[in-house]
Sequence to fold (519 residues):
Amino acid sequence: MKIARHWRDRVPRYRLEGQRHRHTGEVRFPPQPPALDEDPNDWEPYQLSGRGEIYSFSVLRQTPEGFASFGVYPVALVRLEEGPLVTAQLTDCDESELTIGMPVEMVTRRLMDTGEDGVLVYGYKFRPRLS
Amino acid sequence: MSNVYIAGMGATAVGEHYQRSLADLASEAARTALMNVPSIAPHHIGALYVGSAFSEELYGQSQLGAYLASMLGLSPSIPALRVEAAGASGALALYQAVQAVQHGLPVALVIGVEKVTDHLEDEIEAAQAMATDSNEEALHGVTLTAQWAMLMRRYMYEYGYSADAFAPFPINAHANGAKNPLALYRFPIDASKYRKAAQIASPINMLDCSTLADGAAALLIVNENLARELDGVRIRIAGAAVATDHPALHRRRNPLDLSAARASAHIALGRAHLGVGDVDVWELTDPHGIAATLALEAIGCYETGTAPRHAAEGAITPGGKTPIATAGGYKARGDVGGATGIYQVIEIAQQLRGQAGATQVTNARVGFAQSLGGIGTTAVSHVLIRES
Fold:
């Protein structure tokens, strides 16, 4: 991971900050540039709660380069309370307890192996909700 | 606009070609494509379109157009270019060639080529994951298989299936692949083996998971005037279309709906003045049963939530209502990355020529091939018709 590339996405990745449409109230995450037919001023920054539930998940036993230190790990699509789906790893959980619909909350964790450049890539993951 | 025909085709075996380079594989496929068309010589080729998904990441070679034009000895003054759309690269290269021939080019050569097995599995997984949204998905350790797996689990949840319900897809693929001399895996499997297979990305297991391998396939595409000079049945590319979807699954309104697969199929069939019910034989992107399921439903062959039931009743076998993977599909023929789309079209053309051997679909006249890049992020569809 290149430092600049990780730094550029620090706001959504560390804080789970998305965007809300000023008129329709639609919330989207991660943030993105305005579509060609949209007014760029219509989307404002919006802090998500970090709470949601599992839409679906998979436990990976054949993993990509850059993730060896995680061994076998679960990934999920999480439906956030505010509406958007988000893709992330699950953490602090047993494979056997995972179900669709399980309430989860965002935590900040290391996302990938520390590569040759030594960049520590932290960001959002989700764990079973504690409260 | 000219009608567009397939004049010649060739493919290498799919496999781990340790002793052969990317150029060796492309050369064999292209030579075979030209071999049975004596009226067309290499100097007649007016453009070269190459489809490859991984040539930079797993082979360290860019400019495959110029690279292969050089290796094949094509004229240096024709356009030679490479097209990339992950697994749909080859099909998209064909789409470009079809456009060119429709608009006046007499002869185009299309090559799909992939040389990946010099790399370890984790490197291949990472290269394939580049077809996701790299910031929002691959960065989180998600692979394409994991994404199909999440769709499969959600599908099982919404429609009440067990993982076993997806076994008919790899069983059909292996039954057909066993009869294809070019297939990667030439052995049958059964439901009991499927149940015992180890998990790759739950709930997808090893026997429901395709393997990426080396191979090349080539098509010689010609206009109507040249096609009329050829012997035998003519295979016309009657419709072609491309559609796209959000690379990030989480940006899709309904992740179980492969909307690009549907759009490209309907546009391609519309251009051929045909409907779903007119198609006799299908090639789909079927690395896992869930992928075939979602494609069959998106295209409109079956109602949402029902494709596994139809598969269990034999609908996807060569004698069924919607035969798929008659050469083994992604699972048994092998996933040849960006070359797969050309292998698919070759199988459809063989079927329409009545040369598909043991998996021949009786009286196949209309065939359909669809290639997906990523999880239906790019969808390229081609409709082929046999002209007598």
Observations:
- Chain B touches chain A at residues 120-123, 125-126, 129, 135-143, 145-146, 149-151, 153-154, 157, 198-204, 248-251, 255 (CB under 8 Å).
- The mean pLDDT of chain B is 97.
- The first helix of chain B runs from residue 22 to 35.
